[in-house]
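tokens incoming
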């Protein structure tokens, strides 16, 4: 969790912009509640300030760089509920994101899923063809993507039942295509398996603040 001063400064810097054009990422945090999603494409999302959106009194960030969700300390949630002028507490439910570092050109590992749709992403740069499977089912592939570290390419999505599953990533270099024998500017990885989420907002009255305790959230805001 970030401290209050740092988070307030970041929030003020973000709200200076009416429109946010953000690179899609399975580990990115949802923009503050004052913004709404107006368009989503393969690579980018567009968010805009909502006219008449309630004033954000304080924004409590959760999660890490590789997992946007975490369970907030209940004391922090109750503190937000006691702020002067607070009318609602707003949060964003987020499921666990499975992140697997790559030490070579292939990976096969297990992860646990709840029933639903999942997306498979890979970070970094690669010149050849990267492909992914889950339980032997083809998810998708991509080739020749030169991305910064921390940027991700979506390989595909599929629906999964609850329980343990096996995800595999394969890299095939070489071939006759232009650029396949160059040097990728940034390393390949990590592999990310993330549940597809609408990033909907949940809103509770300050008197019901405890209902957010124990829930896995992207962030919590006190709004006036």
């Amino acid at each position: 969790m970030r401290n209050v001063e740092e988070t307030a400064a970041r929030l003020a810097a973000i709200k200076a912009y009416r429109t946010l054009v953000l690179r899609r990422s399975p580990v990115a945090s949802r923009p503050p509640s004052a913004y709404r999603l107006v368009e989503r494409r393969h690579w980018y999302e567009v968010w805009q300030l909502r006219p008449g959106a309630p004033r954000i009194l304080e924004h409590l960030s959760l999660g890490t760089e590789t997992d946007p969700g975490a369970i907030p300390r209940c004391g922090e949630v109750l503190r937000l509920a006691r702020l002067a002028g607070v009318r609602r507490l707003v949060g964003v439910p987020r499921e666990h994101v499975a992140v697997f570092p790559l030490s070579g050109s292939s990976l096969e590992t297990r992860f646990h899923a709840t029933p639903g749709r999942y997306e498979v992403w890979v970070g970094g740069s690669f010149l050849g063809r990267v492909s992914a499977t889950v339980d032997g089912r083809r998810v998708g592939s991509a080739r020749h993507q030169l991305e910064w570290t921390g940027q991700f390419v979506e390989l595909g999505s599929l629906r999964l039942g609850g329980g343990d599953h096996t995800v595999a990533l394969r890299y095939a270099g070489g071939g006759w295509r232009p650029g396949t024998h160059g040097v990728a500017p940034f390393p390949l990885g990590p592999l990310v398996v993330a549940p597809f989420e609408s990033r909907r907002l949940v809103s509770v009255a300050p008197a019901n603040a405890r209902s957010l305790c124990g829930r896995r959230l992207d962030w919590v805001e006190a709004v006036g």
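note: Residues 110 and 166 are 4 Å apart (CA to CA).
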